[in-house]
Design brief:
With 74 residues, the chain is mainly β. It is 0% helix and 58% strand. The strands form 3 sheets. A 3-stranded antiparallel sheet has the order 3-4-7, with no helix packed on it. Strands 1-2 form a two-stranded antiparallel sheet. The chain has a two-stranded antiparallel ribbon with strand order 5-6. Strand 1 and strand 2 form a beta hairpin. It is elongated and about 65 Å long.
């Protein structure tokens, strides 16, 4: 799947593999992708005593979406 992700006012194209499972009345999709904060103009956090706390540049997003069939008449 391809889409656009906006962070800190900057938009970039991202892609990821999506796994889908079809149930009787549901459709479930899961996926994961990662981006670098610096690609969006974000400087990874560094601080704490003597700079001992650091956050990695790469951030991973995981998602799960579930669609449920409406019980109403068609």
């Amino acid at each position: 799947m391809q889409g656009r992700l906006t962070l800190a006012g900057q938009t970039r194209e991202v892609s990821c593999d999506v796994r889908a499972a079809v149930g009787t009345d549901t459709l479930r999709a899961t996926g994961e992708f990662s981006v670098k904060q610096t690609d969006y103009g974000i400087r990874p956090y560094r601080g704490g005593p003597a700079g001992s706390v650091r956050v990695a540049d790469r951030v991973t997003f995981s998602f799960e979406a579930v669609a449920v069939r409406s019980p109403g008449p068609w």
